[in-house]
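Entry: GAL3A protein
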Amino acid sequence: VKIFAPNIEQRDVVDHLKGSPTEEKRNVLVESARLARGNIQDLAELKVGEFDAVIFPGGFGVAKNLCSWAVDGKNCTVNEHVNSTLQAFHSAKKPIGLCCISPVLAAKIFPGCEVTVGQDKNVDGRFPDAETASAIAELGCKHICKNVNESHVDKANKIVTTCAFMCKAPLHEIFDGIGTMVQEVLKLA
């Protein structure tokens, strides 16, 4: 297992205590190294032949830095290294795991694929970003409704997705969903 991140400046830095942007500037690779405890490489250096699969976590980092979904929605652009990495794994017929908001990367790059970001309706207030499912459909992909503790496997494209924090749920349920995604990716590897 190796961890990679693009060597780019973050779109913005958020003070999570206050919930608002700051004037501070940070680099995605440097910030990712902090989270990964230093064991990380530039995404531009990833060689698909050395790995059996790739998994992208989600969160605002994906929506703001790996692509511009947070600002542009379905009209977003995807970072060139993220795009080429996903294209390379797909072309090599190696599994791709995506959770939280990162399934939009597949929806943007692989027309016709199947993904989940949870539900397409805000059921009991648990899915406040349910409109993401319709944006995925507008991109020509199929959104599959799943609960937070489940994942969806698009066998034709070897893409496994789960909604994670796209659902307001207890952490153990989110953990279970991510666990099923990882297990399904490993089965396809």
